[in-house]
């Protein structure tokens, strides 16, 4: 009977990045510019890899998928953030909030697995070069991409199912710029301590397994490069360095937000901006600036003009 008398929350209100109206207006142009750069940069990398036949290899196919996922991850939160910078009433419907949670975890979970797949590709290319073409054929590559999306979807659905039936009867203010599970759970009308442990455990297991595999893979790769002759070592190390930088940029903020026991609101907001805006912006730049094949493809494109 008590549950029946509770009013159901139909929408949530975002606090946003800050409370200062002047600062919000000031941030409008920078964030709009950053999102435009994310859109252009990731789309450019994806189209370049698709259209240039010299980039039709598993490594670049995986990179094109990474660029696509980065664009999708940023698009879940950044356009809403930009629109809310000029709005006084920063609301999102209950369905919109749940959709944000689903999509953020779908793309973030898929990216975790995709980064592991990219590490496996580099392991085969550097540690078993003679067997690379037979191990990383087109069919295998497509399957690995498909698996990363499936794991991301299962992860996202498991997170969403756990909070979808929670009763929300007020307050309805989320101290962030998008719907994040820990912040949404705080607004539930029931105790969510046990549920929080379950959600963190599921996310933590996926993140830690992927991170451990990545650390082992790149340690083995770097040791292999160091122990063998230096022919081609420079290119191998350059490629691995790009991957490692991307892994650090992605996992750093995620670990602090979801696995760090102490939560500081302004720190969480900065880290959320980092992995939803800054990382998707930097990834195409890192691979473009450090990759000789992509730089050559860009030069060829310029010459054709």
UniProtKB/TrEMBL annotation:
Q: Provide the primary localization.
A: membrane
KW Glycoprotein (keyword) present: no
Gene encoding the protein: LOC121140220
Q: What name goes with this protein?
A: Olfactory receptor
Membrane-crossing residue ranges in chain numbering: 25-50, 59-78, 98-120, 141-164, 204-223, 244-264, 270-289
Q: Pfam families attached here?
A: 7tm_4 (PF13853)
Q: Which InterPro entries does this entry report, sorted A to Z?
A: GPCR_Rhodpsn, GPCR_Rhodpsn_7TM, Olfact_rcpt, Olfactory_Receptors
Keyword Cell membrane in the entry? The reply is yes
Any signal peptide, and if so, which residues? Answer: none
Topological category with respect to the lipid bilayer? Multi-pass membrane protein
Q: What family does the Swiss-Prot or TrEMBL record give for this protein?
A: Belongs to the G-protein coupled receptor 1 family.
G-protein coupled receptors family 1 profile domain spans which residues?
41-287
Location(s), subcellular: Cell membrane; Membrane
Check the record and name the CDD domains matching this protein: 7tmA_OR4-like
Keywords noted in UniProt: Cell membrane, G-protein coupled receptor, Membrane, Olfaction, Receptor, Sensory transduction, Transducer, Transmembrane, Transmembrane helix
């Amino acid at each position: 009977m008590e549950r029946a008398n509770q009013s159901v929350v139909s929408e949530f209100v975002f606090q946003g990045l800050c409370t200062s109206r002047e600062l919000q207006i000031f941030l409008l142009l920078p964030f709009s510019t950053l999102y435009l750069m994310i859109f252009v940069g990731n789309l450019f990398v994806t189209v370049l890899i698709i259209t240039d036949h010299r980039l039709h290899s598993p490594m670049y196919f995986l990179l094109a998928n990474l660029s696509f996922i980065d664009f999708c991850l940023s698009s879940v939160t950044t356009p809403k953030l930009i629109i809310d910078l000029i709005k006084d009433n920063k609301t999102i419907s209950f369905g919109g909030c749940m959709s944000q949670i689903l999509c953020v975890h779908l793309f973030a979970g898929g990216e975790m697995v995709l980064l592991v797949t990219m590490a496996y590709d580099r392991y085969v290319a550097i540690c078993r070069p003679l067997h690379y073409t037979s191990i990383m054929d087109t069919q295998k590559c497509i399957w690995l991409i498909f698996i990363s999306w499936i794991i991301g979807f299962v992860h996202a659905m498991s997170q969403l199912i756990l909070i979808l039936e929670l009763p929300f009867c007020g307050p309805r203010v989320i101290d962030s710029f998008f719907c994040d599970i820990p912040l949404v759970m705080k607004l539930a009308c029931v105790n969510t301590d046990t549920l929080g442990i379950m959600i963190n455990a599921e996310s933590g297991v996926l993140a830690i397994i992927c991170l451990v595999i990545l650390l082992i893979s790149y340690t083995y790769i770097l040791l292999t490069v160091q122990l063998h002759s230096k022919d081609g070592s420079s290119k191998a190390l350059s490629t691995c360095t790009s991957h490692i930088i991307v892994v650090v940029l992605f996992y750093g903020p995620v670990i602090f937000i979801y696995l760090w026991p102490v939560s500081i609101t302004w720190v969480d907001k900065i880290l959320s901006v980092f992995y939803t805006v800054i990382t998707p912006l930097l990834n195409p730049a890192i691979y473009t600036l450090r990759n000789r094949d992509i730089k050559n493809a860009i030069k060829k494109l310029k010459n054709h003009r």
